[in-house]
């Protein structure tokens, strides 16, 4: 018997649910653990504002939000969570940072929807709701299949999140030829890319072919030599696509090194992770087309405009996610007869929000992402 998968239209259907589903005089109490003071206070304040937008959209007086300041400190986070537990809160959105989760297994009666994008949880009562690497690789895997790309290599920087990438490669079961770990030092990086792309061999092939033609008696050798001298290398690389798990200037360093070794996005697919529509990529025309998985851009732009109109400033990316999580919690509580427990996140459910589709199963959240490419200085949706 086939399982029925529910698809919920967050912020449309969710926000128009009949209030009769709520038991008389019963409150939906949602905690919020974010940094409201300290170095990350701007992130926390932006999340608070996006949660207010969601509450206004739902327009249900039964919902109560209880924000608490974590100060980005694990000990303070635990004390704030205990305080929320004492008020009767059983589900909390937050905390923001992975290191703030380490003590929360002590409060196993509370469900935490952490905003981190890490793949691993510290405890079964913590559900990571961020856009994790596995979700991103699942979207890339779909792209590779649609385009019949069979020879893919992975480039991962030698930084703290490399273990996350390795786990995501395993969990997504994406087929790759090799995962190369590279240095973030530009001088070392270039030498590593040269080795991966067999640059020196291909360059020598070109020089050897020119010498061979010069010594030959071919009638058209002058034309052939002229054409060869326009090239940098001769011979192909052993892959059709390259997935670069990097961001910002480090990502640009990798694409620059690939271009230097005569590997072009015009011939091979350049793919990276979620870039959140970083507009600096639009100017990197030599690295285009560049492909990446991401949230729904139209919804992201719409939310940003609504947020700006309300607060005269633009939101951060976690605000966008927080906005959806309020509606998600609201719906699941109603569907669970106003009971907050682990059953809320155990059943297989697809939940469509502003971010995209939340895939919920066995107390885990993955995201079904869209796919985009940067080309001709614009972001174009692929699927």
Summarize the structure.
Helices cover 36% and strands 20% of the residues. The chain has 383 residues and is α/β, with parallel strands linked by helices.
Architecture blueprint of SSEs:
Elements: E1 6-9, E2 28-34, H1 41-58, E3 63-69, H2 74-86, E4 91-93, E5 111-114, E6 126-128, H3 133-146, E7 152-157, H4 162-172, E8 178-182, H5 186-196, H6 199-215, H7 221-228, E9 241-244, H8 248-260, E10 269-272, E11 290-294, H9 297-311, H10 317-335, E12 349-352, E13 357-361, E14 364-368, E15 370-375, E16 378-381
Parallel strand pairs: 1-12, 2-3, 2-4, 4-5, 5-6, 7-8, 7-9, 9-10, 10-11
Antiparallel strand pairs: 11-15, 12-13, 13-14, 15-16
Tally of helical runs = 10
Mean pLDDT over the residues = 91
What string, H for helix and E for strand, traces the elements in order? Answer: EEHEHEEEHEHEHHHEHEEHHEEEEE
- Number of separate structural domains: 2
CATH architecture of the largest domain: 3-Layer(aba) Sandwich
Structural class by SSE content: alpha/beta
Radius of gyration: 25 Å
How many strands, what sense, and barrel or not for the largest sheet? 7 strands, mixed
Largest sheet, spatial ordering of strands? 8-7-9-10-11-15-16
Strand percent estimate:
15-25%
Shape: elongated
End-to-end separation in angstroms reads 30 Å
In terms of quaternary structure, what is this?
single chain
CATH class of the largest domain: Alpha Beta
Describe the structure.
With 383 residues, the protein is an alpha/beta fold. The protein has two domains: 6-130 and 297-366, Response regulator (Rossmann fold); 134-197 and 237-294, Rossmann fold (3-Layer(aba) Sandwich). The protein contains ten helices and 16 strands. It has a seven-stranded mixed beta sheet with strand order 8-7-9-10-11-15-16, with helices on both faces. Helix 1 (41-58) crosses helix 10 and helix 3 crosses helix 4 (162-172). The longest helix has 19 residues, at 317-335. The chain is elongated and about 95 Å long. 40% of the residues are buried.
